[in-house]
Specification:
Elements (H helix, E strand, L loop, with lengths): L7 E7 L10 E8 L7 E11 L1 H8 L6 H4 L5 E2 L4 E8 L10 E4 L11 E5 L3 E3 L6 H4 L5 H15 L7 E4 L5 H12 L3 E6 L5 H7 L3 E4 L6 H8 L5 E6 L3 H9 L1 E9 L12 H6 L3 E4 L2 H6 L5 H10 L7 E6 L3 H9 L6 E5 L2
Parallel strand pairs: 9-10, 9-12, 10-11, 12-13, 13-14, 15-16
Antiparallel strand pairs: 1-2, 1-4, 3-5, 3-7, 3-16, 5-6, 6-8
The structure holds NADP nicotinamide-adenine-dinucleotide phosphate (NAP).
C-alpha cells in the first residue's frame, strides 16, 4: 500500500486555557507532518473523541496531563482516537496498513490528521471492531470494566445485586448498563432528565430514576432494593445527586467517584462511615490500567466485538467544524460520543 504523505496537516491546538468556544482553541491549517524516528510509526488518524476530560484539559482544569499542571499551552488536544500506520521509522516492525489506537497516557494529541508515536504504544484494532468504536477504547470501555471489577472484588454484592450509577445517560453509562447486566448485576440508573429513560431501559437498565422527579429518593431506593440499599454506587456527578446516591448505600457499600460533571462536592455523613461502614473511593482508569495484565486491551476489544458493551456515537464532525462539535458536546441528552473525523 502506498500513501502520499503531505508536508502539512490540520491540527486543533490549545492556544490558551479557557472556553473551547471562546478562543482557547485554534485550527492550524498548516501544521507540519512529523517524520517517524527509530521504533516509531506515522499514523494517519481517522477519528478522535471529544471526552469530558479533553474539555477539562482545554479549560486548564485537568491535572492528569503534564502540560496542564505546568500551565504550558500550544499543544494539540485529544486523548484518544484511531488511525492507521502509513510510514515506519528505521528499525520498526509494525506494518504499514495496521489499524491502531495510540495509547498517549500523559500526552494529548489525537485532534490532528497525522501523529508520530512509538510503535510500542500502539494497540492493534482487531477485525470486527469498527473505527468509531475503536476510537473510544481507552477512556470509557476500560473504565467500565475496571469499575465493575472493583465492585465485584470490594462491594457487598453477594446476596445483593443492586448497584447504581449517576450520569447514566453518558456514553460510559450506557456501556455500564450493558456490561453490568452481563455480569449479573441489577442497575439503578440515575439521570437528570427523562428524555433518555426509555432508551436506557432498552439497553438493559433494570430501574431508571429521574432525580428531579423524586420527592423521596431514599425511599425509592429502599423500595427498589427491597430494603437492602445499594451494594455500590459509581458517581460521575457529585453534588446533590452523588450525595443522595451515596447515602443510599447498604452497610459496607462501596462508592466510586469517577467524574466531575456537576463540579460540586459529594457530601458524606460521618454516621454512614461509622455505623454503616461504607467505603468511599475514587476510580482512575489510568491508575487501574497500570496494574492490569498486558492483554487488557485485547480483552476489552473482545467484549466490544462480542457486543457485551457497545460504544455509541451521537455525531461526527470534520476538524474544521470543531466549534459545532463542541456545541454538540455541551448539548444535553446526547446518545453517545461526539467524534472528530480526521481523514
Ligand atoms: N475517572 C476515570 O478514570 C474516568 C474515565 C472515563 C470517563 N470518566 C468520566 O465519566 C463520565 C462520563 O464520560 P462520558 O464520556 O461517557 O461522558 P458524556 O457522554 O459526555 O456524558 C456526560 C454525562 O454527564 C451528564 N451531566 C453533565 N452535567 C451534569 C450535571 N450537572 N448533573 C448531572 N449530570 C450531568 C450528562 O447528562 P445528560 O445525558 O442529561 O445530558 C451526560 O449523561 C465523565 O464525567 C468522565 O469524565 C472518568
Amino acid at each position: 500500500m502506498t500513501t502520499t504523505i503531505p508536508a502539512t496537516q490540520k491540527a486543533l491546538e490549545i492556544v490558551s486555557f479557557g472556553d473551547p468556544l471562546k478562543g482557547a482553541l485554534r485550527l492550524n491549517p498548516s501544521a507540519s507532518v512529523p517524520k517517524p524516528g527509530p521504533g516509531q510509526v506515522l499514523l494517519q488518524m481517522r477519528y478522535a473523541c471529544l471526552n469530558p476530560a479533553d474539555v477539562f484539559v482545554v479549560q486548564g482544569l485537568y491535572p492528569g496531563v503534564a502540560a496542564v499542571r505546568e500551565r504550558r499551552t500550544g499543544f494539540v488536544g485529544g486523548r484518544e482516537g484511531v488511525g492507521q500506520v502509513v510510514a515506519q521509522g528505521p528499525a520498526t516492525s509494525l506494518p504499514v496498513g495496521t489499524r491502531v489506537v495510540p495509547e498517549l497516557s500523559d500526552r494529548t494529541g489525537c485532534w490532528q490528521q497525522y501523529l508520530v508515536v512509538d510503535e510500542n504504544v500502539c494497540i492493534k484494532v482487531p477485525e470486527g471492531v469498527d473505527d468509531k468504536a475503536a476510537a473510544q477504547l481507552i477512556v470509557n470501555p476500560v473504565t467500565v470494566v475496571g469499575m465493575l471489577e472493583r465492585i465485584e472484588a470490594e462491594a457487598p454484592v453477594h446476596g445483593n445485586p443492586w448497584i447504581a450509577q449517576t450520569a447514566a445517560n453518558s456514553t460510559l453509562g450506557r456501556m455500564f448498563i450493558q456490561l453490568a447486566k452481563k455480569r449479573g448485576f441489577c442497575t439503578v440508573n440515575i439521570i437528570r432528565s427523562k428524555a433518555s429513560a426509555a432508551e436506557l431501559k432498552q439497553l438493559g437498565a433494570d430501574e431508571v430514576v429521574v432525580f428531579s422527579e423524586e420527592s423521596n429518593f431514599a425511599q425509592r431506593i429502599e423500595a427498589i432494593t427491597n430494603g437492602r440499599g445499594l451494594a455500590a454506587v459509581v458517581d460521575a456527578v457529585g453534588g446533590d445527586i452523588g450525595s443522595a446516591a451515596l447515602a443510599a448505600l447498604a452497610p459496607g457499600g462501596l462508592f466510586l467517584g469517577y467524574g466531575l460533571q456537576s463540579g460540586e462536592p459529594t457530601r458524606v455523613m460521618n454516621s454512614d462511615l461509622i455505623f454503616k461502614g461504607i467505603v468511599v473511593r475514587g476510580f482512575c482508569s489510568a491508575a487501574w490500567l497500570k496494574k492490569q495484565k498486558e492483554t487488557i486491551f485485547e480483552d476489552v476489544f473482545e467484549m466490544i466485538r462480542k457486543g457485551e458493551m457497545q460504544p455509541q456515537v451521537q455525531q461526527e464532525f470534520p476538524l474544521d467544524q470543531y466549534e459545532e462539535a463542541f456545541r454538540a458536546q455541551f448539548a444535553p441528552d446526547r446518545k453517545g460520543k461526539i467524534l472528530l473525523k480526521l481523514d
